[in-house]
Structures are given as C-alpha cells and as structure tokens.
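Input (structure):
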C-alpha cells in the first residue's frame, strides 16, 4: 500500500483521522553514531516518514522539535553529478571571495543544490522548498552555480530554468554573475532596456521560447495569476512549448495577495467611477460611509459585476491615477460580492480579504528568503497549507556585531516635508547625526529610513531630499567632512542589493511597519482561513513582530554583517537602531537578540559631540562663528546678528542662552568676550 498523506496512514490503521494510532518505532543504529542513523516508523508493516508520523499523531510543538533534532543530527546531503559540480564551483567561488561557511551552513547550501537537482531531474515533490540561510551566506550563489552546471551538462539539455526576482536591478546583477551568452537566456520585464540583455539582435524581441534560462519579475507572474491562469497555461514562460522544470524565487514569497480598502480611499474612487456609472459611484460612496457602523463585523462588498460586465481587472484599475487608488480598485474588483471583515485602524475603517496569489500548479519551486525563520506567514503556510517544506537553514553567530538601540519614536509621519519644525523629528535627526559623529574618522555609514520626498536641483539636475525629511535634517547637522562618507537608502530598496557590503556601520532610523489590517489579511491568506474564522490577537501580534523582524534583518543585512567569516559575522560591525518600545506601535528590544543571535545589544543615549544637537539659527550661528574665526581670528556679535537677521534680544534669548550653544563653541576652543559689541575668539 502506498502512503502519500496522513489520510493514508489513518486508512492503513483502520481509524478515522481523529484517533491517535498506536505504532511502534524501530530505531536502527545507536546514539553513539548519530550520523547515518535512521529512524523507521512502521504502521501495519507500511513504512512512513517521521514527518508524516509526527504531523498526524503528535502535536505541532512535537513536530517542530523533531525538525530541530533532525537538523542537528543531519546526514550529508547526497548530491548527484550535477549537484557535485555545483558544490565544487561554489566552494571555489567562496575561496576567491574569502567566504567561510561552517559545516552546518554548508549542509544548508548543499540542501539548496539538492532541491535544485531534484527539480532538474523531475524528482522533486510538488512543494515550495524554502531556504532561510542568513543574508550573504551564498544562497543565490549556489543557485547560479547550479544553473551553470545544468547548462554545461548534455544530460539536461532539454531542461530549462526560470528565475522570478523582485526588481529589475536584481535581474541585471544575476545576468552579470552567470556570465551567460546572449541567446542562452532571455529577460522578460516591462523595461525594454533590461530585456535587451538577452537578445542576439538589439532590435529583436526577447526569444523566450528558445532560451534555456528566463529571468522575469515576480510581478509578471502575479499579473498572469490574477487573470486566473494556471502556470501551465502561462505560455509566455514556456521553453519550446513546455513548462520550465526548474523554478527559483529569490527573496520573500506569499501564497496570497492582501486586498484591503479603507473608507476614505473607497470614497475617493467615486469620482473615477462616475465615468463608468454614476449609480456605481453612489453605491460605493454610500458603502464607504457605512463602514463605521460595521467595525468588527463581516459584511458583503458591493457586487460591481453588473456595472463592469466584461471589463478586465487591468482596465478597471486604469480608471484611476494613483497607486493607492489602483490598489483600492483592485481590492474592490476582486472582493466584489464577497463577504469581508471590517477592522478599525487609527482613524480608518478598513475592509480586508485576500486572493490566492500563486497558481496551484506552480510547485515545485525553490525559494530563497533569508528571513524565512522570522516570518509567521511561513509557519502558517507550512502548518495549514502543508505545501511548504523548510530546507536546513542554520543561523550564523553575530558575536562580531554591536547593536545600540535608541528608544524613541521615529515613525514615517515625523518626516513629511509638509510638517515644519517637528520637535521629535529634530530630536531623531540629532540622534542620527550624533551616531554618525561617533563612528571613527574615515568610516563609511549607511542610513536606512522611511522613503523621503525629493525635489529636482535645477543647477545639478540631481534629485535632492526636501527640507524636514530625515536626510536633509541630518546633513544640516553633520560636519561637512562627514557628508561624502554617508549613504542613504529608503525602505522598499532595503533588500537584495550588495552595494553596501563593505559598510561596517549601519543606522536604521525607524522601522518599516504596516497597519494591522495588512498583517491580518496576510495571516489569513497564509493559513488559507475562511472569512468566518476568528483571527486571534496573539496570532496578529506574531504576524506583526515577524514582519517587522524580517525588515530589520533585511535592512541591516545590506552592510558588512552579510559577510561570513568562519560561520559568523565579521568583527567590528555596528548597527544603530532607532525605534520606540512603548505603546501599541512599539517593538520589543528583546526581539533583536532573536534576529541577531549572540550580538551585543546596548541602550544608547546621546552623549557625544555636542554640536550635532544644534539646529536652526543656533546651528547657523555656530557654523558662521567657526568659519569667521578660522578666516579672521575673531567675529563680533553684531556681525552674527546681522547674518541671522535677528535683534539683540532674540539673539540672546534664542542663541546665546541655548543650552548647547556655548558648550559647542567651548568644544572648539572658542570663548565670548562680552561687551558692546561682544567678540567671539579663540581662548
């Protein structure tokens, strides 16, 4: 009798699925020789896997403990000819780049190669095989070397590969690293310049059907899936009319698409909908206003089909201008006539639901996501959908990392260019400037924060941060000699890039967070939960902590901590994090030790160079005085007042008497000789 699932086990036992089977566990080998030891589970003389046994008869906690023990007592991954070539090529690459995984981490890398090889051979189970090896461990490298080995082996000359990546610059980087010849690969994106990379002739269209390797975006797959196509029917991805056998997804993956629509955005759609139907516009407007009366309830979304008969999703979204409007239109279209939950977030009342995002026949697929063991979505996916399988992914030690946490609010709303002189924004900018000032002279610093607003500098043609955004506030506080050493990156661009891998000093100013409706919708989708099912508060909190942890890990991993020396983090790495632990929006400091095992975590309070705390006219006065003294040896108070366009009283009250002004001058060796007028000079 074949055992293919838990129902088969129950059938073999002659029991229903709720009864616990009584089985004997036979163990071959001994505890003294754990490597190669095999545990055999038999049910009525039928051998089943330990995973099947524990999943069907034990508790979820017992199953997780089994996974941990299996990982600790792992046996070497058995690789065939293809896998062995990929392993050897990866090892040579690592030696050149001084990358040193330990044996347990090599086991995780070989597990990726093994999954790739099974897909190439057509032997992989229909599952999503996820590797959560840390950022910079070499996950992408082993996938690249496996692809190169595949292309070089005549035995696999009919096997083709598709890579799904999140951004076009990742595609460009992967193409360069694989060193493939045009014609051997194709690129399929919305950017014609990127598509040219794989063409034999720059004027021809991408020759996808004849290219062994296809690079495309995850968004393109999702767009096809939204139209209801199976993966087998997505002919744009085919090779010689056949579905590509090897599938690799780089970075995070979700099985479902969050669909949410808050009352204000829904109401805002009404003007665009009037072009389609004034009756529909009024119906949506009324529905949006009614949400306040249904918080915590389940209601039915308006059925818009009678107004949109035959209209495709892309055309419906095209009625609107902004990304926010189009996302809301997507939710309205997809949830039309469906029962949804209503949640209140802040001042918004939001409807939420989800759509299946991935085609049912997309597996097998290899997923490379360094945050996989931090995110609750994968736990739900593994437990409830049972189509995800974790590959061995041991963490590395971060004993070479020192983390300094500044416990203060640093939310996105503080740094809008429309908000003038926000005192908390000024304090955060002071802190970040001081963090930078603490780094050794000549060291480069990467600052990662919320996306900032920009303007075009007409003189240089550059996009520059607007006033009151964090980069602009920090730059005004820094010593000019520091400016060339500081780089800024915003959330949304904080994954995948290796550009800053030599930066030993990284600052995360604020955390990337979403609203609770998004976390709940993602969690429901990962569980494949019905809208009528409860979603407990503790599960919502696990989703929130997991997703924030994922973004912290990915952002910090842009710097030198992504490197691996003897299985751990390089010495001398520093991470500053600015976030509050208080209130509903707080994040626990203790979670940092979960994200970065063995790192030193310290509380940080500003006590460094005092001049970085100066701002506004106080800072302008300080800089003017320092520059004049360097040039002329002294400067009168009347000159400073004229420069600032301030009266004597205001100058005294707002500048001279500022608590940090005179100490900042004293730190530079400058004193004030009082008189009429006073004179600033070197002591």
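Output (sequence):
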């Amino acid at each position: 009798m074949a055992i293919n699932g838990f129902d088969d086990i129950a059938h073999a036992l002659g029991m229903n699925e709720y009864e616990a089977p009584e089985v004997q566990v036979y163990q071959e080998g001994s505890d003294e020789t754990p490597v190669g030891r095999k545990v055999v589970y038999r049910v009525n003389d039928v051998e089943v896997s330990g995973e099947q046994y524990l999943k069907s008869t034990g508790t979820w906690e017992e199953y997780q403990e089994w996974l941990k023990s299996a990982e600790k007592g792992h046996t070497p991954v058995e690789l065939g000819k293809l896998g062995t070539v990929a392993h050897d090529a990866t090892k040579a690459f690592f030696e050149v780049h001084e990358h040193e995984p330990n044996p347990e981490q090599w086991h995780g890398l070989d597990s990726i190669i093994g999954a790739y090889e099974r897909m190439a051979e057509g032997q992989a189970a229909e599952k999503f095989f996820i590797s959560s090896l840390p950022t910079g461990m070499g996950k992408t490298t082993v996938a690249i070397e496996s692809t190169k080995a595949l292309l070089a082996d005549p035995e696999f000359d009919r096997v083709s590969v598709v890579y799904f990546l999140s951004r076009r610059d990742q595609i460009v980087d992967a193409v360069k690293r694989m060193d493939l010849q045009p014609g051997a690969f194709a690129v399929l994106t919305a950017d014609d310049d990127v598509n040219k990379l794989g063409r034999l002739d720059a004027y021809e269209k991408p020759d996808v059907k004849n290219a062994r390797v296809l690079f495309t975006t995850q968004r393109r797959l999702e767009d096809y899936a939204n139209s209801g196509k199976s993966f087998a029917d997505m002919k744009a991805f085919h090779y010689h009319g056949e579905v590509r056998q090897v599938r690799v997804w780089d970075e995070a993956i979700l099985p479902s698409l969050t669909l949410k629509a808050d009352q204000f955005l829904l109401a805002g759609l009404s003007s665009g909908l009037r072009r389609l139907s004034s009756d529909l516009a009024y119906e949506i407007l009324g529905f949006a206003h009614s949400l306040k009366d249904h918080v915590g309830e389940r209601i039915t979304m308006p059925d818009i089909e009678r107004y949109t008969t035959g209209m495709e999703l892309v055309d419906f979204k095209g009625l609107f201008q902004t990304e926010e409007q189009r996302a809301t239109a997507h939710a309205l279209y997809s949830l039309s006539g469906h029962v949804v939950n209503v949640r209140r977030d802040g001042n918004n009342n939001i409807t939420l639901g989800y759509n299946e995002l991935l085609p049912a026949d997309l597996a097998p697929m290899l997923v490379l996501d360094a945050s996989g063991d931090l995110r609750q979505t994968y736990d739900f996916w593994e437990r409830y959908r049972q189509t995800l399988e974790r590959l061995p992914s041991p963490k590395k030690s971060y004993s070479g990392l020192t983390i300094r946490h500044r416990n203060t609010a640093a939310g996105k709303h503080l740094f809008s260019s429309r908000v003038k002189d926000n005192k908390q924004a000024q304090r955060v900018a002071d802190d970040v400037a001081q963090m930078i000032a603490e780094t050794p002279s000549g060291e480069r610093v990467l600052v990662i924060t919320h996306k900032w607003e920009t303007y075009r500098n007409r003189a240089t043609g550059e996009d520059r941060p607007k006033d009151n955004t964090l980069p602009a506030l920090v730059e005004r506080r820094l010593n000019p000699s520091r400016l060339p050493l500081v780089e800024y990156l915003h959330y949304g661009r904080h994954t995948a890039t290796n550009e800053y891998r030599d930066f030993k000093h990284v600052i995360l100013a604020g955390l990337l967070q979403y609203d609770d409706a998004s976390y709940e919708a993602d969690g429901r989708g990962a569980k494949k939960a019905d809208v009528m099912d409860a979603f407990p508060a503790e599960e919502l909190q696990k989703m929130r902590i997991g997703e924030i942890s994922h973004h912290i890990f990915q952002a910090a991993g842009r710097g030198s901590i992504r490197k691996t020396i003897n299985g751990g983090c390089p010495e001398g790495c520093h991470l500053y994090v600015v976030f509050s632990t208080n209130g509903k929006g707080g994040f626990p400091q203790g979670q940092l030790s979960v994200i970065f095992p063995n790192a030193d975590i310290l509380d940080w309070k500003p006590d460094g160079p005092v001049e970085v705390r100066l701002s506004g006219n106080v800072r302008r006065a300080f800089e003017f005085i320092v520059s004049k003294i360097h040039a002329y040896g002294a400067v009168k108070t009347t000159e400073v007042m004229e420069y600032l366009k301030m009266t004597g009283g205001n100058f005294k009250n707002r500048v001279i008497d500022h608590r940090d002004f005179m100490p900042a001058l004293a730190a530079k060796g400058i004193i004030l000789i009082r008189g009429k007028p006073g004179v600033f000079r070197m002591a």
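Notes: The two ends are 94 Å apart (CA to CA). The chain is about 35% helix and 20% strand.
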